[in-house]
């Protein structure tokens, strides 16, 4: 792709994350692509791994998820990835269908083989997941593809992110988007810490965005006001149908609204305004000014009883009011006349 993907002169780049919400059905995966294309999103993202490329089939200790608050409590890591992974043979039909519908399709590789596989497939953007942002060999491999890179900053200290970004740059990455991410599922608003977005922008001088795992759309829309140029949000056909990530995913109508609201938020940013806008000019006449509220004869004293600061405009500016009090009228005025 010759043009830059992340362009601050355009509305935020919106990504629908399929993750494992295909529920191990290619037909469902293609339906998700179709629905995403109708929302106005720019891209759909999948994930490229197998259970064996992430972990080993083993039970006990940290290989088991023992967290009552987790959506995946009681599962073994290998079992979870078996349920969530997108088979390699599905990638080509998913990519082709997305392209047919005018949608960018790209993926998150979780190992070096996946990078080679995706490169051969023509993957236009690479994503580094939060759980992989300490995998320096993988980050180097992805950077060396020369493709635009999106990297999530979840579960990482600032020193870890420094290293990841520096590794990308040292290995050839020229177009990088760093996403603020809270890696809890679902995440809560009070953990979102969106003020990190301008901090990232100043520190790294690169495109900044948000990978949002909260329920609803408010956090994503708010992030745009702080400078987010990329928004990633999980997508499902229906939360009622279940799926590994469906609980914190948006349904088609909700995602359509997300796209619209993020664009509106971006449009509202505008520029720093220090003058009256052209579209405001017609309203200037309804601002307050100094008017005569009782008939005044020449030589009468001007008091708060016969002149007031009221709407509309047309009279002297209110800043002159106090200086006028106690002075003499230099002409006759009728009630309702502007004092000029």
Structure notes:
- By secondary structure, the protein is α/β, with parallel strands linked by helices.
- The protein has 2 domains: 13-49 and 85-269, Alpha-Beta Barrel (TIM Barrel), CATH 3.20.20.70; 278-324, no CATH class.
- The chain has 11 helices and 10 strands.
- The chain has helices at residues 26-39, 51-54, 77-84, 88-100, 112-121, 136-143, 158-170, 196-204, 218-225, 252-269, 321-324, and strands at residues 13-17, 43-48, 104-109, 126-128, 149-152, 176-181, 207-212, 230-234, 289-292, 307-310.
- It is elongated.
- The protein starts with 12 loop residues before the first strand and ends in a 16-residue tail after the last helix.
Task: Estimate the strand proportion.
Answer: 5-15%
Helix content: 25-40%
**Would you count the extended β strands for me?**
10
Secondary structure tally, helices? 11
Strand order of the largest sheet: 3-2-1-8-7-6-5-4
Which CATH architecture of the largest domain would you pick? Alpha-Beta Barrel
Largest sheet: 8 strands, parallel
Secondary-structure element pattern, one letter each? EHEHHHEHEHEHEHEHEHEEH
Uncertain runs: none
CATH-defined topology of the largest domain: TIM Barrel
Q: Look at the structure and name the CATH superfamily of the largest domain.
A: Aldolase class I
* 3D shape: elongated
Number of domains: 2
End-to-end CA span: 64 Å
Radius of gyration: 29 Å
CATH class of the largest domain: Alpha Beta
Q: Please state the average pLDDT score.
A: 95
Q: What structural class do the secondary elements suggest?
A: alpha/beta
């Amino acid at each position: 792709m010759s043009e830059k993907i992340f362009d601050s002169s355009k509305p935020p780049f919106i990504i629908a994350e399929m993750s494992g919400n295909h529920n191990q059905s290619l037909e469902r995966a293609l339906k998700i692509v179709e629905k995403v294309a109708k929302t106005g999103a720019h891209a759909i993202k999948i994930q490229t791994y197998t259970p064996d490329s992430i972990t080993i089939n083993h039970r006990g200790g940290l290989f088991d998820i023992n967290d009552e608050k987790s959506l995946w409590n009681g599962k073994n890591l290998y079992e979870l990835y078996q349920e969530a992974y997108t088979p390699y043979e599905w990638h080509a039909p998913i990519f082709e269908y997305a392209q047919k519908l005018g949608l960018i399709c790209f993926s998150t590789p979780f190992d070096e083989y996946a990078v080679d596989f995706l490169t051969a497939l023509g993957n236009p953007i690479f994503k580094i997941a939060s759980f992989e942002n300490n995998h320096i060999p993988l980050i180097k491999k992805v950077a060396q593809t020369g493709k635009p890179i999106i990297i999530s900053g979840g579960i990482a200290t600032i020193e870890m992110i420094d290293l990841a970004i520096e590794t990308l740059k040292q290995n050839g990455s020229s177009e990088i988007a760093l996403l603020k991410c809270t890696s809890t599922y679902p995440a809560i608003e009070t953990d979102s810490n969106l003020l990190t977005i301008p901090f990232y922008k100043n520190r790294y001088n690169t495109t900044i965005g948000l990978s949002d795992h909260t329920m609803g759309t408010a956090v994503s829309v708010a992030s745009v006001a702080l400078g987010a140029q990329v928004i990633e949000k999980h997508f499902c056909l229906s939360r009622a149908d279940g799926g590994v990530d469906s609980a914190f995913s948006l349904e088609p109508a909700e995602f359509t609204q997300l796209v619209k609201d993020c664009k509106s938020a971006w449009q509202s940013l505008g520029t720093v305004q220090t003058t009256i806008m052209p579209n405001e000019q017609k309203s200037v006449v309804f601002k307050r000014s100094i008017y005569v509220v009782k008939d005044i004869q020449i030589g009468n004293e001007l008091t708060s009883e016969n002149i007031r600061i009221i709407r509309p405009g047309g009279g002297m500016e209110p800043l002159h009011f106090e200086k006028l009090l106690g002075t003499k009228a230099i002409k006759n005025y009728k009630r309702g006349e502007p004092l000029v």
